[in-house]
């Protein structure tokens, strides 16, 4: 099965720098890769860890600016 990569809406080139990632649900967890270099490799993290990261970002506890 081929991974379905999803790009952030912030990766459309209109935001400063447009440095974004793509994510995909994989059998082994969640794949993360650079949207500007999709062939450059990926990192796979567990679903629970990725969910915890998203929760921290959404709560404002992690400022990514």
UniProtKB/TrEMBL annotation:
Pfam family, one: DUF397
Domain of life of the native organism: Bacteria
Domain DUF397: 3-58
Database matches in InterPro entries: DUF397 (IPR007278)
Designated name of the protein: DUF397 domain-containing protein
Species of provenance: Actinomadura violacea
């Amino acid at each position: 099965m081929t991974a379905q990569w999803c790009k952030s809406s912030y990766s459309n080139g209109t935001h400063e720098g447009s440095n974004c990632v793509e994510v995909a649900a994989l059998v082994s967890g969640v794949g993360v890769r650079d949207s500007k270099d999709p062939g450059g490799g990926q990192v796979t993290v567990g679903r629970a860890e990725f969910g915890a990261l998203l929760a921290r970002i959404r709560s404002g506890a992690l400022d990514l600016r």
